[in-house]
């Protein structure tokens, strides 16, 4: 599971660097034209998306993908939570950690 998230992060980072290099190579004069093209592309994307959302098959696929993504994130966070609890949870409570001290006391010494 962690490998999948690491790969996604690595690829996004690589994509960001490639885009940065392209912008740097094109120079500042090309930016206004590129931004205008980007704006037009975004408008076209929203028009196409609006039309696609009317299609029940597309809506069903989006729902399914959304559920899969939510499950993947939930499983990842649940596993991380279990790992953290396993590593720190019982040790901190059993050893008189900060949560065992009286409210308003210094967690390190237990004194007010």
Whole-Å distance between the termini?
44 Å
Radius of gyration: 25 Å
- Biggest sheet record: none
Number of strands: 0
Structural class by SSE content: mainly alpha
Helices, by number, come to 3
Helix content class:
over 70%
Order of helices and strands: HHH
Q: Unreliable stretches, pLDDT < 50, 5 or more residues?
A: none
Q: Which band does the percent of strand residues land in? A: under 5%
Shape: flat
Mean pLDDT: 78
Give the helix/strand layout.
Blueprint: H1 2-26, H2 31-53, H3 56-94
Describe this structure in words.
This protein has a domain at 32-97. It is flat, with a radius of gyration of 25 Å. It has helices at residues 2-26, 31-53, 56-94. The chain is built from three helices and no strands. The chain is 78% helix and 0% strand. It is an all-alpha fold and 112 residues long.
Q: How would you briefly describe this protein structure?
A:
The chain is an all-alpha fold and 112 residues long. The chain has 3 helices and no strands.
Overview features:
single chain; 112 residues; mainly alpha; 3 helices; flat
């Amino acid at each position: 599971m962690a490998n999948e998230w690491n790969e996604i992060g690595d690829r996004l980072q690589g994509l960001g660097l490639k885009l940065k290099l392209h912008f740097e190579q094109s120079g500042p004069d090309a930016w206004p034209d590129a931004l205008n093209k980007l704006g037009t592309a975004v408008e076209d994307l929203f028009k196409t998306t609006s039309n696609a959302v009317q299609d029940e098959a597309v809506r069903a696929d989006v729902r399914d993908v959304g559920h899969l993504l939510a499950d993947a994130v939930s499983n990842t966070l649940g596993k991380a939570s279990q790992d953290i609890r396993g590593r720190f949870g019982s040790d901190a409570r059993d050893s008189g950690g900060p949560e065992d001290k009286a409210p308003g006391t210094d967690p390190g010494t237990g004194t007010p």
